[in-house]
Design goal:
By secondary structure, the chain is α/β, with parallel strands linked by helices. The protein has two domains: 153 residues, Peroxisomal Thiolase, Chain A, domain 1 (3-Layer(aba) Sandwich); 146 residues, Peroxisomal Thiolase, Chain A, domain 1, CATH 3.40.47.10. It has nine helices and twelve strands. The strands form four sheets. It has a four-stranded mixed beta sheet with strand order 4-3-5-6, sandwiched between helices. The chain has a four-stranded mixed beta sheet with strand order 7-12-11-10, sandwiched between helices. Strands 1-2 form a two-stranded antiparallel sheet. It is globular, with a radius of gyration of 18 Å. The two termini are 24 Å apart. The structure holds coenzyme A. Coenzyme A binds next to helix 2, helix 6 and strand 11.
Length: 309
């Protein structure tokens, strides 16, 4: 996480809002904001090095790097290639995937397919986002929500633990409800627009709640599991009310739901990995437990990963 903290109080001096409005509607109190010299690849490097250390892995053994980001340093090379350069790994493949806030789940799904097919043995998955650079700080309906950060995991083949299944989906019909234009690639009059997040929050909220409810059923059915088999829910951190609705669907007490958004806000594709990291490192998630990761984002995109840790 970047060091700089931006509180609701501080935002309420920038736009017409209040700490209580933001907290009551979203569950967010503060978020981290990258400094001018921080980049998605720089934050990705820090998270990646922590994951490599935790896995006691030789970086040279990594044969695939997947970075999920909607805020890449450059249009190209990919943030994955920039991360590969930063880590000094010569012999691996690196690329980005763009699935907005579902990015890390999509990346986990790709990594899982590569490992299960035998095409890769060690895969570094990173979600890294500088949302603060694509937020309109004059728009109170969006600027209160997002934050910056990066999370990473290192995956390796194992018959004992790991990803039980992943489920990813998209529906491009909903483009208008949540998007971020790319003025650089637009032509003519479209070029005038700023590259800021545009969202119809209320409508996004409703689709997110319904969709995440369905992905819970799909994931449990695919594994012939019952709700009670899930030890932990690690959801995308968009809004506490969306998270509570998913926990309710699972009949799960909030004590078994990892929530980081109060101090991090929505860090898009980084959020699930950041939350997973926090709960593993503070000892809540224990070896052998079953963990459901899920996310929903622009596209719309949505997905889940069921893990035996
Ligand atoms: N402070 C105070 N008032 C605000 C405000 C703010 N920051 N943002 C919006 N409002 C106002 C609106 O202008 C509106 O006023 P009006 O009734 O006079 O028109 C009122 O609050 C209600 O707006 P609405 O958009 O219906 O609020 P909401 O309860 O849906 O909460 C969100 C807004 C954005 C918090 C909520 O819709 C949400 O979190 N949606 C999901 C967004 C999301 O997760 N996106 C990422 C997906 S990965």
């Amino acid at each position: 996480m970047p060091e700089k903290v931006l509180t609701n109080e501080q935002i309420s001096r920038m736009v017409d809002t209040s700490d209580s409005w933001i907290f009551d509607r979203t569950g967010i109190k503060s978020r981290r904001i990258a400094s001018d010299d921080e980049t998605a690849s720089g934050m990705a490097e820090i998270a990646a090095r922590q994951a490599i250390e935790a896995a006691a892995c030789n970086p040279e053994d990594i044969d695939l790097i997947i970075v999920a980001t909607g805020t890449p340093d450059r249009v190209y090379p990919s943030t994955g290639c920039l991360l590969q350069q930063r880590l000094g790994i010569k012999n691996c493949v690196a690329f980005d995937i763009q699935a907005a806030c579902s990015g890390s789940i999509f990346a986990l799904s790709i990594a899982d397919q590569y490992i299960k097919s035998g095409a890769a043995k060690k895969v570094l998955v990173v979600g890294s986002e500088i949302c603060s650079r694509i937020v309109d700080w004059a728009d109170r309906s969006t600027c209160i929500l997002f934050g910056d950060g990066a999370g990473a995991v290192l995956l390796g083949a194992s018959s004992e633990t790991g990803i039980l299944s992943t489920h990813i989906h998209s529906d491009g019909e909903y483009e208008d409800l949540l998007y971020c234009p790319n003025p650089q690639a637009a032509s003519g009059t479209n070029r005038q627009g700023a590259g800021y997040i545009a969202m119809r929050g209320n409508e996004v909220f409703k689709v997110a709640v319904n969709t995440l409810g369905r992905i819970v059923d799909e994931t449990l059915d695919a594994n012939s599991m019952d709700k009670s088999d899930i030890d932990w829910l690690v959801p995308h951190q968009a809004n506490i009310r969306i998270i509570v609705a998913t926990a309710k669907k699972l009949k799960m007490s909030m004590d078994h739901v990892v929530v980081t958004l109060e101090t991090q806000g929505n860090t898009s594709s980084a959020s699930v990995l950041l939350a997973f990291n926090e709960a593993v490192r503070d000892g809540r998630i224990q070896r052998g437990q079953v963990v459901l990761l899920e996310a929903f984002g622009a596209g719309f995109t949505w997905g889940s990963a069921l893990i035996k840790y």
